[in-house]
Amino acid sequence: MRMRDLEKASGVGRETIRYYIREGLLPEPDKASRNSARYSDEHVARLKAIKRLQEERFLPLAVIRTLLEADDGDRWLLPEAFPMLDALLAQRLDEAGPARVAIADLALPPSMAEHLGDGIVTVADDGSVSARDAGILRTIARLDEIGFKSELGFDGGQMRLYNVLIDWLTGQEIRHFLEHTAGHVGEAKALDMAEQGISVINDLLGQLRTRALLRKLAERRRIANDNL
Q1: Which end of the chain is more exposed for a tag (fewer CB within 10 A), N or C?
Q2: Do 44 and 119 sit in the same domain of this protein?
Q3: What's the 3-state SS for 26-73?
């Protein structure tokens, strides 16, 4: 096929295609003459694989070239063989515990009702939540017992703030992990690292948050004492 056919089949522009050839991501085309080049289905497959690895895995071109040049590099060219690291990890994390928990069985205090509709957890039509959401509700209930109640400002707005911050943070974590780690160690190793790392990083985040809170409280005490 000619360049215009390759552009149409792959969805990649000719300048990008030429750049990939210069960088070794694509093989040189067959040249019938100085001004005529022919491209093959391999060029199409490689271009589509590069797009997937960039858009879905956030991998840099240097890592993509390493993957394609490996002994088993051809597996990256097949859509059905594309590694679904995030789906596999999610499946592993949801394997433990009951699939659903009835809210009625959680014995939540009446003040917890507002958290059932603030988007923090997802309640099914049958009044159940996932095992993980049930754990979140139990934790919020413990805070309620301590005294973190809505009339004191700990309401749905505060919980939504936590949710927004966590959503942003985990998005950054996944992007960084896929770009800088997963592509270098292989799918199986990356899956094990991600699974084991979650609880460790949770501990790290807790330690960093505690340290930051203590520093800020100490600073507020210092300012208050200076104003006496």
Answers
A1: C
A2: no
A3: CCCCEEEECCEEECCHHHHHHHHHHHHHHHCCCCCHHHHHHHHHCCCH
Which pTM does this prediction carry?
Answer: 0.54
Q: What is the pLDDT of residues 134-147, one digit of tens each?
A: 888 888 888 888 88
Backbone angles phi, psi at 68, to 5 degrees: -70, -25
Q: Verify that 102 and 156 share a domain, yes or no.
A: yes
Residues 100 and 113 in one domain: yes
Specify the number of domains making up the chain.
Answer: 2
User: Cα–Cα distances in Å, from 5 out to 36, 43, 142, 184, 208?
Assistant: 13, 11, 63, 33, 54
The answer to whether residues 77 and 131 belong to one domain is: no
> In Å, what is the CA distance from 49 to each residue of 19, 75, 76?
16, 10, 6
Residues 105 and 140 reside in one and the same domain: yes
**E-assigned strands of the chain?**
30-33, 36-38, 100-102, 128-130
CATH of the domain at 68: 1.10.1660
- Which residue in 70, 78, 69, 93 sits closest to 170, CA to CA? 93
The one-letter amino acid at 7: E
CB-based contact 131:98 (threshold 8 Å): yes
Angle made by CA atoms 124, 174, 199, in degrees to the nearest 5 = 75
pLDDT tens by residue, 23-46: 888 999 998 777 789 999 999 999
* CA distance linking residue 169 with residue 45, whole number of Å: 34
